[in-house]
Specification:
Chain B: Keywords: Membrane, Transmembrane, Transmembrane helix. The structure holds 3 protein chains of 3 kinds. Helix content of chain A is about 65%, strand content about 0%. Chain A is mainly α. The chains are: A mainly alpha, B mainly alpha, C alpha/beta. Chains in contact: A-B, A-C, B-C.
């Protein structure tokens, strides 16, 4: 690789620090305190800038076997789960907690390769209902009902 | 009324059939609520308030005490089993609790947590019983400059939480502090980094970050290993501690309970700082600090004893001064008011029955929790035997409910997912997540205390050194920060391999 | 085993109802029996939004009102409390604003409904909603340490005029919000230069501690928070912001700002609102029900427990009251240059 991983990360961080600093300098001022709300953010932005620069010149740690690296074939699965989760969140308030959770639990487990369909269906039906009852009736915390009447 | 007379009266109520029954119900309900990420002691008590309305105050308090302890314990269970800390107090427990569970020692970790909580709880109640009036003075001795110094001291833990690269840990911590600046600034009312989004005005919720960085990021690793069977299935539920292990954790529990209690007495500091400080100090005291973070039993015992002791300590300012020192005791205060009791400096004189009733119910709640939960551990830890593919979906659902039940906004859910992705990326590029979370938790309060101090002093920094407590803590913080850096420099020169070994 | 059976039956039931009823419900309040007679009654559960998390003042008011409505038999429909936390209330308000016309989505609010929009943090203010009824009132108290050199507000304000930088005021919320504004309002009436007041905000529960250990000098808070500390001789209350002295043990000892010659009051009112363009018949229904609630002995008990004052206003009065309040607060914020 032409550039080390540390260098790439460092450049990304420097960009973040610069954006953060620009936003910090734009904070409106407030006249009645000796130290305004922008002091700490500006300080933090500068610190991040310095630390990122230090990282840039730090050698990468010896590349041992990276435990967290996802094998290429698993990447679509992770992305798939993320998509399922986004759909779940998007539909939660529209269709309601019970229905979306049932669908999410069943489909996501299926997608991950769970093949005991009866168990899966049972869990997907029972768990959302139990949670819903626990929250709505016992804890008096209303979860979205959506299109269901309860 | 003297201490013993009061206690006996308190126990009479607590040990009646009705009393025991309500503590029992409280503990069970609390444990269940606490296990759901996002529902901690605060929610558990808040939802109990309408239920206890109209109840006999003494009995209602028993129920509350049960719920309180149960919820705290339930939170630890979620941290250990799912890497999903539901409250900031439970974050430090994940550091070694989850690795232990992954190695097939979930039962042991849960048992350690239960016993640690019990020891911490008991020691703090004993101290509370005898020292509450004396310690009340300590509780009000901290003003903004002292809090600033304390938070800074807590932040020095960042360096100790790093595995390998100190720079990466510091970057991670700095970003945590940056995240803490999002929202309306309390000293000026200025909205910072909110981009006009109303959901960001009150800042980003702790849960969004904790569940994202810890639990959801872990889900990605689970996906990779989804076809593996859970390891060491036969031993998941075993609670057994060897004699050597028991000997190892006993002093840990003792000293960290004391530390936790003292930190807990300070309003606002509470269980989170206590648990982090306990974890760090135990790591520093240990002969094998490299084991921490990889399933050290002392790494579970220390924060668990400390945070429970701290929650006992938080009752000192509440009961002796009427000052709620933590979110949980603030809700407790509300609960007591509903019951017709206004806690304040006169509580002990005006309502000795209530004062001792609370203390007696804490003793009982604590004991019942241990008795109930130890036998339940094998069942609770069975959650790990759920097939991975199903468990992954369930963890995601629990995280989502946890966040939604606190914020009721889908915006926070997207944010949660975002932090999940960030947490995973950080793992891949080997940036530790713990410093970020710690800095986020402490950062908001630290900045506010810093600027409150400067407003009070009209801008003069001398306010931080004229207070001996603040000056002393700042000095310790300074040393705690510098010494490890100097040490690592030295060891790097002497032995270049050292750095990689500890990575 | 029995339990499991019951659970199973329940689940079955739910699945069946789910299957049968999805899609049969329509949005909003179009299925209400309004008619021309002007009579309206709820025919499905009512939702009260507390624009804050569990445990706070709004949440407590909403939960207690919901409970007492049902317990005293004033409203038979189920009433659920929903927490919509965020933005000092603006998230909850935006949610209710989206329910235009619905008579089933109420919310509880207090002065922040005026303050937060004036600070530029909410698109919606009281004019966007339908005021239903105010129910309770609370007042501010200004406390100092028991051994402080001031014995009344005038002594304090005189010192503030002489050397503003030596006196720090603490409150639990940011500048421009309630704890700040209530102090500013009284101080201004007393002739203090309000741009010189040193105010720090402590949102982590340390305000009282800071007062007790002498870090700050004055604590701007609610009356209820001070009573126990005064009884114990730890602090003294220099003034409260009510029109007349409050009733009750210790409370009646607190002098009002008015009786000290400072012509200003501040009310922390708390009441209920509906979404924009709520039907007149529904407004009338809720007005009556809140009046009944306010008069019930059950709610009187709740008020007593929390130390709230009774302050009922119907929809019309309430709206007028809010308009006046808004003008006053806006004036103060303009003086400070904080109004957005």
């Amino acid at each position: 690789m032409f550039r080390t991983k540390n260098k790439k990360v460092s450049i990304a961080l420097i960009l973040i620090a610069i954006v953060y600093l620009i936003l910090s300098f734009q904070l409106p001022s407030y006249a009645y305190v000796p130290v305004d709300s922008d002091l700490v953010p500006i300080g933090l932005g500068v610190i991040l800038l310095l630390l990122s620069a230090m990282l840039f010149f730090t050698k990468d740690q010896e590349q041992k076997e990276n435990e967290e690296h996802i094998p290429k074939k698993d990447l679509p699965i992770v992305l798939g789960v993320i998509c399922f989760t986004i759909l779940y969140i998007a539909l939660l308030e529209i269709i309601g907690f019970i229905m979306t959770t049932m669908l999410f639990l069943f489909l996501c487990s299926l997608f991950l390769g769970y093949r005991k369909h009866v168990v899966n269906a049972a869990v997907s039906i029972v768990i959302p209902i139990l949670i819903y009852l626990l929250f709505n009736d016992f804890l008096q915390v209303s979860l979205p009902t959506g299109i269901l009447p309860f | 009324m003297d201490v013993f007379h009061g206690l006996i009266q308190g126990f009479e109520i607590a040990l009646s059939f009705q009393g025991l029954m309500f503590v029992f119900i409280g503990v069970v309900v609390g444990t269940v609520i606490g296990m759901i990420p996002g529902l901690g002691p605060i929610t558990a008590i808040a939802v109990m308030i309408p239920i206890t309305y109209g109840m006999d105050p003494a009995i209602a308090l028993l129920l509350m005490a049960g719920v309180y302890y149960g919820a705290a314990y339930g939170g630890a269970a979620a941290s250990i089993l799912l890497n999903a800390p539901g409250t900031s107090e439970a974050v430090a427990t994940t550091f070694d609790g989850y690795p232990l569970a992954k190695q097939g020692h979930a039962g042991k970790a849960l048992a350690l947590s239960a016993i640690g909580s019990f020891v911490g709880g008991t020691i703090s109640i004993i101290l509370l019983t005898f020292l509450a009036p004396t310690l009340a003075k300590v509780a009000v001795s901290f003003g903004p400059p002292e809090y600033f110094a304390l938070m800074l001291l807590g932040l020095t833990a960042i360096a100790s939480l790093s595995e390998g690269s100190t720079i990466k840990a510091l970057i991670s911590g700095t970003i945590g502090l940056m995240i803490a600046t999002v929202g309306i600034d309390a000293q000026t009312g200025t909205a910072r980094f909110t981009f006009g989004n109303a959901h960001l005005l009150e800042g980003i919720d702790f849960l969004v970050i904790a569940l994202g960085l810890f639990a959801l990021a872990e889900v990605a690793s689970l996906i990779k290993n989804r076809k593996e069977k859970a390891t060491n299935m036969h031993s998941v539920g075993s609670l057994k501690l060897t004699k050597a292990e028991a000997k190892e954790v006993a002093p840990t529990m003792g000293r960290q309970s004391l530390l936790g209690f003292l930190v807990g007495v300070l309003p606002g500091a509470g269980g989170t700082i206590a648990s982090f400080m306990a974890y760090i100090s135990e790591k520093k005291l240990s002969k094998n600090p490299e084991k921490f973070g990889k399933g050290a039993i002392r790494g579970v015992a220390a924060p668990e004893s400390a945070n429970n002791a701290a929650s006992g300590g938080a009752f000192v300012p509440l009961l002796s001064l009427g000052i709620p020192g933590s979110g949980t005791t603030a809700v407790m205060l509300g609960a007591l008011i509903v019951l017709g009791i206004q806690p304040g400096p006169l509580l002990m004189n005006d309502h000795p029955d209530v004062f001792w009733g609370v203390i007696a119910s804490m003793y009982i709640g604590n004991i019942l929790l241990l008795i109930l939960n130890l036998p339940l551990i094998p069942y609770i830890s069975r959650i790990l035997l759920v097939p991975r593919q199903l468990l992954i979906s369930l963890i995601i659902v629990f995280c989502i409910i946890g966040v939604y039940a606190v914020s009721f906004s889908t915006f926070d859910l997207y944010l949660l997912l975002g932090f999940g992705v960030l947490g995973y990326v950080m793992r891949v590029i080997k940036f530790p997540a713990a410093p970020m979370l710690l800095a986020f938790i402490l950062g908001g309060m630290m900045e506010q205390a810093f600027r409150q101090s400067l407003t009070i002093s009209n801008g003069s920094l001398s306010i931080f050194v004229t207070s001996p407590i603040a000056a002393g803590m700042l000095l310790v913080a300074f040393l705690a920060f510098l010494v490890p850096i100097i040490k690592s420099r030295k060891s790097k020169k002497n032995d270049p391999a050292e750095n990689n070994k500890s990575a | 085993m029995k339990k499991r059976l019951a659970l199973f039956a329940l689940i079955l039931l739910m699945v069946v109802t789910t299957a049968c009823s999805s899609g049969s419900k329509n949005a909003g309040g179009s299925s209400d029996d309004k008619g021309d007679s002007g009579e309206w009654k709820p025919d499905k559960p009512i939702e009260i939004v507390a624009p804050s998390g569990a445990g706070g003042g709004w949440d407590t008011t909403a939960r207690m009102a919901a409970k007492m409505f049902n317990e005293a038999g004033i409203i038979d429909q189920k009433i659920g409390v929903v927490n919509k936390e965020g933005g000092g209330g603006s998230v909850g308000w935006a949610y209710v604003a989206s329910k235009e016309g619905s008579p089933y989505n109420l919310f509880v609010s207090s002065p922040p409904l005026l303050l937060v929009p004036l600070n530029g943090q909410s698109k919606y203010d009281h004019e966007d909603f339908t005021p239903l009824a105010n129910v309770i009132a609370d007042y501010a108290a200004f406390a100092v340490k028991a051994d402080a050199k001031w014995d009344n507000l005038n002594e304090l304000f005189d010192d503030m005029k002489k050397d503003p930088s030596s006196i720090t005021v603490v409150g639990a919320s940011a500048p421009g919000s309630m704890d700040h504004i209530q102090f500013i309002k009284i101080a201004k009436a007393a002739g203090v230069d309000i741009t010189k007041i040193k105010y720090v905000s402590d949102q982590d529960g340390g305000a009282l501690t800071s007062l007790l250990n002498g870090s700050v000098d004055v604590y701007s808070t609610g009356v209820a928070e001070t009573v126990e500390q005064v009884k114990a001789g730890k602090i003294k209350v220099l003034g409260v912001t009510s029109e007349e002295r409050l009733e009750g043990d210790t409370l009646s000892d607190f002098p009002t700002a008015k009786e000290q010659g400072i012509d200003a009051t501040f009310v922390n009112w708390r009441g209920f609102f509906g979404p924009p363009k709520m039907d007149k018949a529904a407004v009338k229904y809720y007005e009556e029900k809140f009046k009944e609630l306010s008069d019930s002995k059950e709610f009187a008990e709740v008020r007593e427990k929390y130390g709230w004052d009774e302050m009922y206003m119907d929809s019309e009065e309430y709206k007028k009251f809010l308009d006046e309040q808004k003008e006053e607060i806006k004036g103060l914020l303009d003086d400070l240059g904080l109004a957005k």
